[in-house]
């Protein structure tokens, strides 16, 4: 390890060298201290210098911090709240990008499922489904974990600071927000009533205050403020939603009977002042 480090520095002295295995040696780390799957509490302790001297002398990097297997990864937002809290924390990487299952096609009668993994092909030595641990399916369509990552990695973070005022923090380190188009929309009971564009340019790592012309917010409606971050081609990078006023806990109804209907897409219940629909495939409202 040391010989490799010395060689790398002789070839390119300015590059930082990272080797996670060093954490289990007396050296602890080279130019970067690295670990895998450190819990958030210890990540915060590392930033504050309360986890031990060896963790505080160099930048801290989680070469793996979330595992995308099954319903994972989880707690991305909490990890990134911690990462942004201290310049000592460099961030981390998710294991891993894509599932590695084998695609057979729906017409392949040999296998029961469209995708197979270890043990499905008669092999005795295998890791079962451990290769199916990515943010995207083998055909590169998105897992829900990829959508969670998209949200956690958003380039701007907004906070409602009161009334019509937003605090926007640019999480880019080297780019201002002039590379983005930031749009907003105000909704009453999920229906858009106002929208606009935030033109303010925010410097890298800076926070700016923005006042929006929202007007009076009713107290008897569900009121949401949606923020959209797009690139200059109009592709959505991420979005945020703030609930300015929650919906009433209960709504009085009349004597009209509830009408239940079933369709190819799902189920619905219609009553005298509203309607609710459930997706047949996902169960979502």
From TrEMBL:
One of its GO terms (molecular function) is beta-galactosidase activity. Signal peptide: none annotated. GO terms for biological process: lactose catabolic process. Keywords: Glycosidase, Hydrolase. Residues 168-245 form the Beta-galactosidase domain. One of its GO terms (cellular component) is beta-galactosidase complex. Its EC number is 3.2.1.23. Residues 3-156 form the Glycoside hydrolase family 2 catalytic domain. It catalyses: Hydrolysis of terminal non-reducing beta-D-galactose residues in beta-D-galactosides. This is beta-galactosidase. It comes from human gut metagenome.
